[in-house]
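Convert to structure. Protein one:
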Amino acid sequence: MPSTDVLLLALTLLAALGCALIAGIFLAFSNFVIGALARVAPASGIAAMQSINVVVLNPGFLGLFMGTALACAVLLLVAVWHWQAPGAFYLGVGSLLYLLGTFGVTMACNVPRNNALARQDPASLEAAGFWRAYVASWTMWNHVRTVAALAAALVLAYPLIWFPTAA
């Protein structure tokens, strides 16, 4: 049976990788997906994003997104319980960056916007105005959660490098 140190090391590595993968997914959206959708007719952009928001709710993405949140929650508890241990500060900060800056922002900012978009009729007269505002605000919050996920990955990786027996 693996020791607690080995399990903590594995969990930290998985959390850091999960944060990095989520950051990459969100970066792709900020960098070119939303930009491409904003260049087409609003009705087409709305319909495409509505479809994306349905398709993204799949076991692969949700497993990664929620699994990383769970790993970070466990690491946060470990960090609090073992605050004096080398690397605990980084485990706590990295976990909070993901839990608040990525998971929290997603739930508080991006999901409500997606839900409002789901109620839009792409062919309606008000849809074009809604779409412009949606693209601007959704993308801004997507930038926030992208940076938070990347920062979380980097901070969680730090104890793996400098305190490998403590992570």
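Protein two, convert as well:
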Amino acid sequence: IARLLDAGTTGDKIPFIAMEYVEGLPVDDYCNKQNLDLNQRLDLFREVCAVVNFAHRNLIVHRDLKPSNILVTEDGMPKLLDFGISKILSPDYEQINSATVTKMGAMTPGYASPEQLANKSVTTATDIYSLGVILYELLSGHRPFESKEKDFKEIYKAVLEIEPPPPSAL
């Protein structure tokens, strides 16, 4: 996970998070540029899952997992970043987190879980769903409902009602 350097609120009461700069490529670009085979992609993905598991064990749901938020450094180390809409799963922070309910502009529909698209409460399962979409894309080169992503109603319906083709079919 990219290190948190600072956080707070500006004089205009705008919250901010400052994280370390990570030099790297989005995980999908890295896999393609390095021409990783299936086993190498799966090994890298397992490392990404371990990072997300660490966040979950510390009661944090990322809520915006996508390849561009997982950068892989030159030495092959994945770094998770952009916790801007993350949620802390703790009763102590429930009041604070009520202000971070995701709206359409604060998530990426192609990676969003059914509960995010329905604007319902999120859990760690939200990130697990997004990880599944990322894995699908790493294996097939496409997202499960890529053709529906331009229309919110279509992506919503597809995620809730349609079984995507297996990645091997693509």
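The CA atoms of residues 32 and 109 lie 23 Å apart. The chain is about 35% helix and 15% strand.
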